[in-house]
Design goal:
Layout (H helix, E strand, L loop, with lengths): L6 H17 L4 H7 L4 H10 L17 H14 L3 H21 L2 H13 L4 E4 L15 E5 L2 E12 L6 E7 L9 E7 L5 E4 L12 E12 L3 E2 L5 H37 L1 E2 L2 E2 L4 H29 L5 H26 L11 H10 L6 H11 L3
Parallel strand pairs: 1-4
Antiparallel strand pairs: 2-3, 3-7, 4-5, 5-8, 6-7, 9-10
The protein binds flavin-adenine dinucleotide.
Amino acid sequence: MDFALTKKQSELKQSLIEFAESELGGDMRGREHAGEFFWQGWKKSAAFGIQGLPVPERYGGRGEDAVMCMVAMQALGYGCRDSGLLFTLNSHMWTCEMPIVQFGSEEQKQAYLPGMVAGTIVGGHAVTEAEAGSDAFALRTTAVRKGDRYILDGTKTFVSNAPIAGVFLVFAATNPKLGWAGISAFLVARDTPGLHISGPVDKMGLKTSPTGTLSLDRCEVPETAMLGRPGQGSAIFNAEMEWERSCLFASHLGAMQRQLQTCIHHSKHRTQFGKPIAEFQGISHKLADMKVRIELAELILAKVAWLKSQGKRAHMEAAIAKLFVSESYVASSLDAIQIHGGKGYLPEFEVERDLRDAVGSRLYSGTSEIQRNIIARLLGV
Ligand SMILES: Cc1cc2nc3c(=O)[nH]c(=O)nc-3n(C[C@H](O)[C@H](O)[C@H](O)COP(=O)(O)OP(=O)(O)OC[C@H]3O[C@@H](n4cnc5c(N)ncnc54)[C@H](O)[C@@H]3O)c2cc1C
């Protein structure tokens, strides 16, 4: 068993940390206050090749495997303080771009992938509805066939990137009687008549990643807009969730590593009762717990990356990784605030933001309870 990164992986990791620290920070607090998406950072990321990491070279990408992708997203999580930009990048890459790579027709790949790699098209992912959240496959949006076209009707909520996206992967029932087996996925361009987009809505965290609602009102698309086959929607959804539950959460792991560095620095420099607070066991044990969470998170994510790079499924492992990283991120973010004392509670010191972001990580990509349900089901109980 070899846990070392290859030379190529180490070089990519280092160059991404340096790139993110120098180019993706800027006036983060100002953008967060204004709820503003960092377009310049998005474009610089595309020029660096980030959006193209998992995309084959013939569509302009880098064709990297799952291990490289996860190393890269972790490095970005460490180097980039704009968690909203990172969230938008991850949503774009793993829940829109990657499904096109895996399930798209040649025509769909040619139509969308070069623009998504170049950053001229942002991707969105629309499954959630007001009455179908955790129970995603209970969705009510329908896609009714009419000749060589489909007519989509329904409303999608919580769509990350909606206000800025150029294309959406929309899930709808083509055969409602079949339940999950009757769900299909469609690529719907932003300018499609009948597609109405609202937002951004305000959120607790990830404020620089715009979220909105899609209304599909007799929204007509050609049959060639379907991704994969009729009824393949749930399989597409499960495949993309494996990517998101690992790569997005690799970014959160990177953020936890940066958070620990900040806490170590503060603990060594903040003096109370005549000595650095790091010398109090009450503080040093928190730092140790943060490190333990990071190490274990890194191990399970490495296992998912290895399985996926071997072309194997990682349904159980991705659920474990998602659950463990998100719960660890919340626990460590609370520790980070405690270690910083009152300063940890003030936005200007940029400690409390991690907690606001971390709470969201227990909800999206399937809540913690849903991950436990998946794990238990795969255990056969
Ligand atoms: C920041 C953010 C970004 C998001 N981005 C997107 C996106 O881009 N596209 C998209 O489609 N969706 C997106 N979502 C939606 C997200 O996937 C849902 O919020 C999530 O699946 C939970 O659904 P819900 O909010 O309806 O909660 P509910 O399903 O109503 O759940 C409420 C509570 O009940 C629990 N619960 C529900 N069912 C069970 C069960 N069977 N067993 C045990 N507990 C259960 C849940 O775990 C939760 O604690 C996003 C959400 C957030 C917060």
